[in-house]
Specification:
By secondary structure, this protein is α/β, with parallel strands linked by helices. It has 2 domains: 149 residues, Rossmann fold; 143 residues, HAD superfamily/HAD-like (Rossmann fold, 3-Layer(aba) Sandwich), CATH 3.40.50.1000. 36% of the residues lie in helices and 17% in strands. The protein contains 13 helices and 11 strands. An 11-stranded mixed beta sheet has the order 1-4-3-2-5-6-11-10-7-8-9.
Length: 309
């Protein structure tokens, strides 16, 4: 592994680069509670004493393993995962050991010794940042990078070999202008606005760039059931608000394999049926439903996040 190494994307580099925090990748709950309760010195002693004990996989571990499997058989890596941690290199040795044990091909890492990690996300050219720290996620979003707070979640009961990623629409893939109409003027005004503006593309949200990078990655594989990647839009929209979404994605030249227009139904059971390895949503109510069924990332963006959790 290489610590604190600059790895910005070079021109023409189509790799998908995902930055992830150690607490999203591994279950560090016990040691983090110790840090919160007793401070850095006791935390350091604990990690060094247990550095040869393997860490259990965290919420995002299955997602990372599937992402890295996309490199199998490739002459050049299609995906790179970068580890960002507030541990020091000393206390991070346990993390290094666990990465090696699980055979994760993670070659780059930054250990900041307690300093924020988010400034390093753009240095690596990452299109996505996943962290258990909401402040780090907010900082990454502010710098224009797709980011989500990984929440305590339940993994799907039936796992697929495919990498399955699901997205909410408004304030995630798209901007939040339509969501603002819904919250400020009501659902009837929202539907009227979407019908009147059906041919006007929605603006891009914080995950537009990541979705485009994922779409480019999909193009390296056969389409259909044989593809190792499957994507879904899972939105509270319903007809007649569907048309603007479809035309916007068509205009962007981006394909989503499935689209679920749920009309306000709880998303969790549908995400479980899809078998999402991760789902991204801005709404607190939606992520609470989703995380009972699948790994979930909260995107603290848009009008739904102007108020406290």
């Amino acid at each position: 592994m290489q610590a604190t190494e600059s790895a910005a994307v070079k021109p023409g580099d189509d790799r998908l680069i995902v930055a992830i925090s150690s607490r999203a990748l591994f279950d560090l709950g016990e040691s983090h509670e110790l840090f919160e309760r007793e401070g850095i010195d006791e935390y350091r002693r604990f990690q060094m004493t247990h550095e040869n004990e393997l860490l259990a996989p965290g919420i995002a571990f299955p997602l990372v393993r599937k992402l890295l499997r996309l490199n199998d058989g490739a002459t050049e890596p299609r995906v790179e995962v970068v580890l960002l941690s507030r541990n020091s290199a000393d206390t991070g040795l346990r993390i290094f050991n666990s990465i090696e044990h699980y055979g994760l091909q993670i070659a780059r890492a930054v250990f900041t010794g307690g300093a924020p990690t988010s400034p390093y996300v753009p240095s690596f050219g990452a299109q996505l940042f996943l962290s258990a720290n909401p402040e780090s996620v907010a900082a990454a979003l502010a710098s224009g990078i797709a980011a989500a707070t990984i929440l305590p979640s339940k993994a799907p009961a039936t796992a697929s070999d495919q990498l399955r990623i699901a997205f909410d629409g408004d304030a995630v893939i798209f901007g939040d202008e339509s969501e603002r109409v819904s919250q400020e003027q009501g659902i009837e005004a929202f539907h009227r606005n979407e019908v009147e503006n059906a041919d006007t593309p929605l603006s891009g949200g914080p995950f537009r760039g990541f979705l485009a990078a994922l779409h480019r990655l999909q193009a390296a594989f056969p389409a259909g059931d044989d593809s190792p990647i499957r994507t879904a839009l899972v939105t509270a929209r319903s007809a007649p608000a569907h048309k603007r979404v479809i035309l916007t994605l068509r205009g962007w030249g981006v394909r989503l394999d499935e689209a679920l227009f749920l009309g306000g139904r709880d998303k969790g059971p549908f995400l479980q049926t899809f078998g999402a390895d991760i789902f991204f949503d801005d709404s607190h109510a939606n992520v609470e439903s989703a995380r009972q069924h699948v790994a979930t990332g909260h995107v603290p963006h848009g009008v739904s996040n102007k108020k406290a959790w």
